[in-house]
Amino acid sequence: MRIFDPHIHMTSRTTDDYQAMFDVGVRALVEPAFWLGQPRTNVGSFTDYFDALIGWERFRAAQFGIRHHCTIALNPKEANDPRCVDVLDVLPRYLAKDGVVAVGEVGYDSMTDAEDTAFARQLELALAHELPVLVHTPHRDKLAGTRRTLAVVRESGIAPERVVVDHLNEVTVGEVADSGCWMGFSIYPDTKMDEHRMVALLREYGTDRVLVNSAADWGRSDPLKTHRTGLAMLAAGFSESDVDKVLWDNPVAFYGQSGRLVLDPLPGFTASTDTFAGNSVLRGGRPDHAVTPGEER
Amino acid sequence: MSAIALGYGTNGFANHRLADAVAVLADLGYDGVALTLDHAHLDPFAADLTSQVNRVSRLLSRAGLRVVVETGARYLLDARHKHQPTLLSDDPTARVDLLRRALRIAHDLGAECVSFWSGSTPSTVDDATAWRRLRDGVAGLLDEAGRWDVPLALEPEPGMLVQHLAQALRLRDELGAPDLLGITLDVGHCVAVEPVDAAECVRLAGAVLRNVQLDDMRPGVHEHLEFGQGQLDLPATLAALAEVGYTGLAAVELPRHSHAAPVVAERAIHALRHAMPAAPAAAENPVRPTNNPAPATATAPPDRDAGPRPVRPPSPDEVDHPWLVAAEQRVRAEPEAIRVLFPAVGREVGRAALRPDSDPHGLVHGTVDDLARVRLLTVLATALPDDAAATEVTELYRYGDDAERRGVLRGLSALPERPALVEAGLTLVLDALRSNDIRLVAAAMGEFCAGHLDQHSWRHGVLKCLFVGVPLAAVARLDRRGDAELRRMVDDYAAERRAAGRDVPADALRLLGST
């Protein structure tokens, strides 16, 4: 199984996670810029984080044979903090970078005026930098938030096929499907979606314009949920090519619109992801890593 | 209305032997060359200058080409400072010497004039002093021009003391409007900086026009472009030349296009013929004998080796990647453009390791994008004063991703060794050596680091390479800088590895065996 996780926060994950992800077939991922759990208090806190996303985290992922990309934005929650809003002025510098494949996560948290302003401004940045957009939908008042999101996207003039609206569920998927935007689903252990409900939605809505992600972060989450969704699809009678479409071709098609995906295998790693009884078996082994980033701190 | 004689500047053929450039241009149907005296093309300081001049003279007459002499070579007099010294410098001796030599060479070649510019006002000199230095300098040269009976042609050059046609005409008036002082007009410059268009400039210069350079430009941007890429009205400009009865050479001036000179020269002459006013096209100009460039090339002795060429890693065809060449031009004209070009390098020229077989990650020799970024930095350093260049380089690193930071680190040794740049470079090297990204650590330990980093930090850098797995081949001048203290540190490191039952890296053993 070949997997591209289109939404995962690796900054919050360990090297064991990277290894386990590689072992089940993850070869590429996108790490959206988001909230750290602990609120930021100044712009410098964002830029250090962005620097890590375009440098250090990319390097860490490469040690495990995984191509790391990211999205850059002021997240909806912190768009409400006046100490953080000035980060909008530094975004253009980051949106020009290699491996920055979208503007995101943008959208709504509490649906405030400040969130409206930041959202609209970042949609303009996406248009100016010819980048797709990753939109987060709120946890609270989700359906209303999704509708408002779609209205703002429509007004912005950005093409719907360049927008993914994420964290959808049974209640919100329909309107997004009708809008022409891509549909993102985060598969979680307890909240959001689980893999079996995901399979049911795939049956109902098909596999076009669907992105399945683990959205794993510092909370209770599982970086292998993409893999588990693939297994659930196979168990439910989807073909291997359906699985490949949802877990690889679709994210490549969506983020490929940035023109900035790099997907060739990293030197020293095999592109092969052959699996046996659900576990990947690496053929011919993998050369020892010359590098252990954690060895010196 | 006469046809205008078309030439091409040899500074646009910097990667060709002069004999080959002449052959290509004659073959394309050009009527002449604007010959820039420079290291590779008739070095005016060559020991065997007389025989070289004779050879070039034969070469041109065999090809039937007319010639004007240009003196705008960038590093002919000062290897470190572009265009220095000038007539405005505290010590203009070298410039005066060059221009005097140029007049004599022009005489020997049968050239139609010697073109020159004023130079930029030095920061320590006020405008009145600069103007006086220029006037006195030109007055002195006029005597020499009289001696050889070769006209001088002053070229207004954007950014220099004389950058507008009106200033050049004023200087001429102040000197008593001597016959031997004319004007060189670059029609692209007119688009970039003059208050009126190129055709009007041609009319204003009128009878004192001695030399014309042809190229396109955009308003406000001093960047020599091919015809059609800027806002020059070429037909109107050529018509104005015909109208004022200009009989000199009008030579294409594209000094940044040497990488593709033959095709650029071909496109240029097509554009010119197309835009030419009525009458016979220059291609049928009867002064030129039948074209037979082959013997000229075959019989001309090979040009003297122009001295050591810049050492380049065995790279890529990408070295003259068209995107990179255009990016260099843009940085020259508009240094802050590097902020958007630097991040785009990998996407445009690729990211492959330069020597993938022995160095798959590019830790030792770098990557294609590293090489391209080094070139952009080199241009940046020539386009900005030191302090501004140091700030820009620091910002490129500060806001750079891993690849950009690597490019900055690898580029430090290509920057001029001046205090502001060295200080900035050291700060960046120390930052990179604090990181754990092996590509940054490897890039930090290059030539610049070897030349400037203090011994304590340098030793820790070497040890860090051993720790994180950077091959010591990436450390510049390891043999020269390695000392007993480094050996002690590596020895202790090896002992610690052995105590833990781990292998000692082969690089560490080699170093212990050799220091």
Automatic annotation (TrEMBL), chain A:
Q: Keywords assigned by UniProt?
A: Hydrolase, Metal-binding
UniProt superkingdom: Bacteria
Q: Per UniProt, what is one Pfam family of this protein?
A: TatD_DNase
Return one GO MF term.
metal ion binding
Q: What family is reported? A: Belongs to the metallo-dependent hydrolases superfamily.
UniProt name for this protein: Hydrolase TatD
Native source species: Goodfellowiella coeruleoviolacea
Q: What is the lineage of its organism?
A: Bacteria, Bacillati, Actinomycetota, Actinomycetes, Pseudonocardiales
TrEMBL record, chain B:
Q: Which Pfam families match?
A: AP_endonuc_2
| Residue spans of biased composition, Low complexity class | 279-301
Task: State the SUPFAM superfamilies in the record.
Answer: Xylose isomerase-like (SSF51658)
Query: Gene3D superfamilies of this UniProt entry?
Result: Divalent-metal-dependent TIM barrel enzymes
All residue ranges annotated as the Xylose isomerase-like TIM barrel domain in the record: 23-272
Q: What highest taxon heads this organism's lineage? A: Bacteria
Q: What ranges does the record give for the region Disordered, renumbered to this chain?
A: 279-320
Keywords associated with the record:
Isomerase
Identify a single GO molecular function assigned to this protein. isomerase activity
User: InterPro entries from the xrefs?
Assistant: EboA_dom (IPR047715), IolE/XylAMocC-like (IPR050312), Xyl_isomerase-like_sf (IPR036237), Xyl_isomerase-like_TIM-brl (IPR013022)
Concerning PANTHER family, the annotation shows:
HYDROXYPYRUVATE ISOMERASE, XYLOSE ISOMERASE
Recorded hits in NCBIfam families, A to Z, give: EboA_domain (NF035938)
Q: What is the protein's given name?
A: Sugar phosphate isomerase/epimerase
